[in-house]
Amino acid sequence: MAKKSTLSFDKDLFKRSVVYNVKTLYRKSMEEASPQQIFQAVSYAVKDAIVDKWMTTQEEYEKQDPKLVYYLSMEFLMGRALGNNIINLQAYEPVKEALEELGVDINAIEDQEPDAALGNGGLGRLAACFLDSLATLGYPSYGCGIRYRYGMFKQQIRDGYQIEVPDNWLENGNPFELRRPEYAKEVKFGGYVNVYVDENGRSNFKQEGYQSVNAVPYDLPIVGYGNGIVNTLRIWDAQPVECFRLESFDKGDYQKAVEQENLARNIVEVLYPNDNHYAGKELRLKQQYFFISASVQEAVAKYMRKHGDIRRFHEKVTFQLNDTHPTVAIAELMRILMDEYYLTWDDAWTVTTKTCAYTNHTIMAEALEKWPIELFSRLLPRVYQIVEEINRRFVKEIEQIYPGNQEKIRKMAIIYDGQVKMAHLAIASGYSVNGVARLHTEILKKQELRDFYEMMPEKFNNKTNGITQRRFLLHGNPLLADWITSHIGPEWVTDLTRLTKLKVYADDEKAKQEFMNIKYKNKIRLAEYILEHNGIEIDPRSIFDVQVKRLHEYKRQLLNILHIMHLYNQLKEHPEMSFYPRTFIFGAKAAAGYVNAKLTIKLINAVGEVINNDTSIRGKIKVVFIEDYKVSNAEIIFAASDVSEQISTASKEASGTGNMKFMLNGAITLGTMDGANVEIVEEVGEENAVIFGLSSDEVIHYENFGGYDPMEIFNNNSDVRKVLMQLINGTYSRNDPDLFRPLYNSLLNTLSTAKADTYFILKDFEDYAEAQKKVEEAYRDEKGWARRAILNVACSGKFSSDRTIEEYVKDIWHLDKVVLPSKK
Ligand code: 26W
After folding, report:
1. Are residues 149 and 24 in the same domain?
2. Which listed residue, 110, 394, 489, 532, has the most CB atoms within 10 A of its CB?
């Protein structure tokens, strides 16, 4: 029988399936069902279509026995699944029609789905884009992570302040997930290690007196675009182990049962909402070992179901460590190889070091994971023994290469000063270390990881990040997607480099007009969203200048808002000045304990409150803080943006990926030469971006040798002085003039001992204001703007995560593509 192709989607069958699901799930007719119930029913109907492909894909993997990559990550910021799955099934139009015929609006149904927000920001969203690309390119792969009961908190703004609200994303059930109890694994914590010599004279290391939890996997389908491939994201839930029978327990059993139950309950309870900030919490290490032990056990078990020789594990499996968070995988693999398969240290080490590869996502010192050995060894006694031995051998190696150089050991040892340094463990034990943008990788090699690079240069490589165009253009911006397809055909969906064909339209008057009309419609869509969610009216004809990303001092939202205060001052002083209306849009979550970040949110809202309500400026400036910035509203925001704010202190943003999403949607980058901005400018040309500020070399030079005094700028620049004084004279906090003083203090040396303006905000202020003027000038020339915007889209091809994944495959993972027989 011929296989049913995705294109011959059976609309009537689908409609019957939705109606049937509404009936059997809720005993309701379509008319009676709530939007949420219809969402569930539609999702189950879509899942039906996915499951066949899922089985076929996995059977094919079994047959072809290809090498697999396990992408190990504490975070997968997936967003919504329904729309994306339908898109990748190439069934969006027919499903939309089918639903229309049932009297249902597909957008309203998609809006019923909670975001799967199992991540903080860049690192988690990158993992999600990678899964999409891996499936679309046909590479056999698993994502492995944690099924947090509560994901990233929901943000509410009350009185201008951020309030964190728990994200109960599983409240209505997750229609796409599949519980797989048959693959459950036991994970052990604590206790002590005993050594027994067996009859063969082998030492057996046994962890005893431990507490354990059961890791139960839930599988989520990852649908490839139009290729029939469905890969798996496996996220682990924790269940208490059955350790005693109710009818016969003594006091010790009872105590232990209660403790184990608490452990199981706590371990997957919530995602840590810290981004780029290490807090050293015991529960976090438990989370790490929990999902890593389960994933590594399963990877080994799966391999052994098919293969006899564990010594060749690395020929069929590779582990990519998404930052240091999963690095305990190195020691866990060593443990399993030695303690369960009786490999010698050397054999186990050979396998492990050919299996594990590490990606670095940040150079921020406060993000580095360093676990106190007291905690690490108490929680993971056997794993700690192994890390100690890895360290002992690594230090010996350093001594051999750099005899008598104590300094090298101090800087490079895995265990030092009573801490286990996870990055050092990952670099010493992995076969690859990669940064996430060219500049970032160079900084790793020359600065942060210089000693490691000098000792093992062959491990280091760059993989510039990317994003999936299926979600951030095809799904998020259907008007532009259709326009592009009508001009250059649909191939860009799986080959983004095709967008270069759009270049010719940058000088085509009709095309420019159409392009700007689409942008205008998308701005109306965003304006409606903002009116509905924020109650603020904005003018879609104004310049939409947007900064959406996590709130962090290095990302410099403060520079943006200080500049807005300055613009407002100018407008008040010179009401007659020529001024193009601007809407400044922010979206950002702050880590719950990050005081200056939260205060910056309050400042943005306070400034907005004053400016938005000052009728004397006749709406020329609006400031909007979008509540609860997340993947689903990001799609709408990128589509509607004119200006992409990428203004981190040079050297601090490893790559950025929002910058790429803006570019793909035709926004112009206003940014520093940082992270992937450098490569964006290289692709699109400096004349089609607006670049300002210190270079990374200059920043690093000031950091290493000093020579920057923010007070000098305060003294000499009256614009800056005026804005800073407004932080402490109650202009934006009438009832509490001291409210924003901590932000003022962070910028100026008032106590001579304190460091100030460590992110060079005042240093870059004037240049930023100049750059903003250039933006305004450029926008006045509508045709010139359209030209630049189209060129940004046309030159964004490099930034597809498809390209990134192909590079990982070629340089690091060495996987083969799987093509399904039906697609050959
Ligand atoms: C231990 C606490 C913690 C939590 C998260 C430390 C570090 C992180 C992440 C590595 C932070 C992160 O998301 N980094 C971002 O990674 C993106 C994907 O590579 C880059 O594009 C961003 O520039 C980088 O900030």
Report:
1. no
2. 394
d(CA 527, CA 548): 16
Say yes or no: 587 and 640 in one domain.
yes
In-domain check, residue 237 = yes
pLDDT in tens, 71-111: 999 999 999 999 999 999 999 999 999 999 999 999 999 99
Q: What CATH number does the domain containing 170 carry? A: 3.40.50.2000
Q: Catalytic residue at 572?
A: no
My answer on whether 55 and 148 are in the same domain is no
Residue nearest to atom 17 of ligand 1 (CA): 122
Angle between helices 328-335 and 345-355 (to 10 degrees): 140
436 in contact with ligand 1, CB cutoff 6 A? yes
240 and 143 in a single domain? The answer is yes
Helical (H) or strand (E) element with 232: strand 230-240
Residue nearest to atom 7 of ligand 1 (CA): 276
Is 615 catalytic? The answer is no
Q: Which two tokens stand for residue 181?
A: 């109890």
Query: Using one digit for the tens of pLDDT, what is the confidence trace for 596-616?
Result: 999 999 999 999 999 999 999
CA of 124 relative to ligand 1 center, distance in Å? 8
Q: Is the CB of 362 within 6 Å of ligand 1? A: yes
Total domain count, the chain: 3
Annotation marks residue 410 as catalytic: no
Do 295 and 72 meet the contact criterion of CB atoms below 8 Å apart? yes
Q: Quote the strand ranges of 526-573, DSSP E.
A: 543-548
712 domain residue, yes or no: no
79: part of which helix (H) or strand (E)? strand 76-79
Ligand 1 center–CA 756 separation, angstroms: 24
In a domain, 574, yes or no: yes
User: Domain check: are 25 and 124 in the same one?
Assistant: no
CA distance 391 to 573: 64
Residues 501 and 424 in one domain: no
Residue 752 has pLDDT above 90, yes or no: no
In a domain, 750, yes or no: no
Gap from CA of 589 to ligand 1 centroid (Å):
14
pLDDT for residue 253 is more than 90: no
pTM of the model: 0.98
Set 424, 523, 555, 788: catalytic member: 555
From the CA of 124, give the closest atom in ligand 1. Answer: 13
What is the best residue among 277, 327, 361, 463 to mutate for testing ligand 1's pocket, by most ligand atoms within 8 Å of CB? 361
Instruction: Examine the residue annotation and report whether 550 is marked as an active-site residue of this protein.
Output: yes
Mean pLDDT calculated for residue range 722-740: 98
| Structure-token match 């009818």, residue found | 247
Q: What is the ipTM of this complex?
A: 0.98
Regarding the beta carbon of 675 and ligand 1, being less than 6 Å apart is answered yes
Q: Annotated catalytic, 657?
A: yes
Ligand 1 centroid distance, CA of 284 (Å): 16
DSSP strand pairing (419-421 vs 460-462)? unpaired
Whether residue 575 sits in one domain with residue 458: no
What residues make up the domain containing 458? 65-80+115-465+807-817
User: Token pair of 672, please?
Assistant: 């520093």
User: CB neighbours of 426 closer than 8 A, spacing ≥ 6?
Assistant: 321, 324, 327, 330, 356, 358, 433
Taking only the tens place, the pLDDT of each residue in 735-750 is: 999 999 999 999 997 7
783 is catalytic: no
User: Do residues 74 and 121 lie in contact, with contact meaning Cβ atoms separated by under 8 Å?
Assistant: no
